[in-house]
Specification:
Elements (H helix, E strand, L loop, with lengths): L6 E3 L5 E3 L2 E2 H8 L3 E5 H18 L4 E6 L6 H9 L3 E4 L2 H9 L7 E3 L6 H10 L3 E4 L2 H13 L4 E8 L21 E2 L4 H10 L4 E7 L10 H21 L5 E3 L17 H19 L5 E4 L3 H4 L3 E13 L3 E6 L8 H5 L5 E3 L9 E6 L8 E8 L7 E5 L19 E6 L2 E6 L4 H4 L5
Parallel strand pairs: 4-20, 5-6, 5-13, 6-7, 7-8, 8-9, 9-10, 9-11, 11-12, 12-13, 15-17
Antiparallel strand pairs: 1-2, 2-3, 4-14, 14-15, 14-19, 16-19, 17-18, 20-21
Helix pairs in contact: 2-9, 4-5, 5-6, 7-8, 8-9
The chain binds pyridoxal-5'-phosphate.
Pyridoxal-5'-phosphate (PLP) binds next to helix 10.
Amino acid sequence: MFVSENLGVNEKNHLIIGKNDTVELAKKFGTPLYVMDEDLIRKNCRLYKNAMDKYYDGKGLVLYANKAFCSLYTCRIANEEGLGLDVVSGGEIYTAVKAGFPMEKVCFHGNNKTADELDLAIKSGVGHVVVDNIYELEMLDKIAAENGVVQKIMFRIKPGIDAHTHSFVQTGQIDSKFGVALENGEAFEIAEKASKLANVRMTGVHCHIGSQIFDIEPFCKAAEVMMEFIKELKDKLGIEIDELNLGGGYGIRYTENDDPIEYDKYIERISVIVKDAAKKYGVKLPFIIMEPGRSIVAPAGITLYTVGGRKEIKDVRTYVSVDGGMGDNPRYIMYESEYTAVIANRANEKPTETVTIAGKCCESGDILLKDAYMPKIEVGDTLAVLATGAYNYSMSSNYNRIARPAVVAVSGGSAKIVIKRETYEDLIRNDM
Ligand SMILES: *Cc1c(COP(=O)(O)O)cnc(C)c1O
């Protein structure tokens, strides 16, 4: 009935997440409130890990792409489940270190890493830096030398694959700010350059073709193209590549129209493609790295709001406003993303009207759901927006000086705060 498997309805007709009554959660912790189902996060981690063990003989590592939801809490869970981590900034490195993460299982990404960030990465013992461009390569070599280490690197390659998704989250095509392209020889050039530097060692190649992708074919094509590149590196430069990092980007169900790929089937397909290509090209079987973010945490999260005023504009539209919005979920204003919402205190009621659910920020684009077909929403209802576990908290802001909501993790029937609600005092903490 709901877009995520962990949701249901109890005898009070309240929405439940895991075994927790969402109306009770809203009462106890206040709204807006992010709720994360820890059991589902762990289940998703295991799904990937087990598939990698089963289909690729354990010769791979799944990294949780931290930017989907970065916190001490999520870093600890990824670690406990035996995953590595994909980080994209000094702040994410810092968070991982503070969470006690084994940093050799971390890949550091980004199209414009600063000297300070690279230095922090090296000093923290980050396993791989995924180098984006020549400028960064030279800077990293120098910083590695200053630290007296040889840093393992991969290159971010644009395999020239067009993934069918929103243009803001397409990253595998030549017109992208990320990485070096294959088709114009940039990728080969940077690999050649790296082979001559003393303080970096190229052990892997990486690609990430985009996000929220529902089609398995672009991923398969990317894997094939990357294996061809591995052969080219061996033939022309004598470099043997140990690791193939295929990125993330697997779509999830935000609405009933979304039909995600089965993640374990994908790993099965990719395993065959990589094994066959290694044999055909006479290159060694690479260790496979994958970086799912959204598909691990998004379905596990919901956001609870309290409904405020209704505005029925005759012959135009009905707006229903809630006590959060683009500050806690900027995905509509960024991508016009679609979501599903449920009235948590009347979860099974039949829809009867089309309404637009708006946030409370001073922007007309501050919308959570446009033209949603819903049961009649009343002032004081608890509204749950589903599948908000990824790119919500991590993209949140204090626009309009609205404090960020708390994050509560539920497991079994218990609930605990894992990130505190911000206070007004937090909002002025750095003001002089
Ligand atoms: C964003 C990103 C991911 C994760 O993407 P999801 O769509 O959340 O799975 C993985 N790798 C890289 C390099 C990324 O930029």
